[in-house]
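Allow me, if you will, to draw on your knowledge of protein folds for a short while. Thank you for your consideration; the sequence and its tokens are set out here:
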Amino acid sequence: MAQIAEDLFLLLLDNAAAQPALERDRRARLLAAAALLDLAHACLIRPAVTGDPVESGMLLALDGRGPVDPAVGPALELLQRRPLTPRTAVSKLRKGAQEQVARHLERLGEIRRVDLPSRRSTAPHAWPFTNRHRVGPARAAVLSTLFDRTPPTPSTAAIVTLLHAGDGLGALLSLNDRGWRWVHARASEISSGSWVDESPTTLAEVNLAVTASAVRSALL
């Protein structure tokens, strides 16, 4: 269920230092937002609309069945207590967002935690990949969507939307001015929700796009 948050963290880790890119608070906010979008894609939350008992745009928890991924469980529990604005939800979730995702990826065997001597690094840990079976396709999907205009998967669309809103695409790409103009134009298209028209979609994808539009405002 936590494909968006997990793939985002893996992409931010994909560097020689095996440490996540972006400064801590911005990274935490992106991962918190990604957890919310994973719940939206699972149709476990949605933004309130006219006629709901709360203000439009607030995030509502929906009735759901089945197990919830540990990486996104805290986000669902938070919204089950009461509806929140996207900005408040991201703010409340950001503190533990990275640790929850990292631990789950460790349990899945995608990464391993390496403690670093404090005198050698300001970061306490590195997370080298155990393999590239997951991060490789995730990176290829982002690049194909941005440069080849391949219709994105829901996870890829969500990741591009979040990184674009949080000014984080530079953590994945190094481009000249012309390249950035192309990427920002394509990322803007995806962030607008137009990706749902590029391939067949279901209610889950529509709910993800609508929720992403609400959540990305918390990152601007």
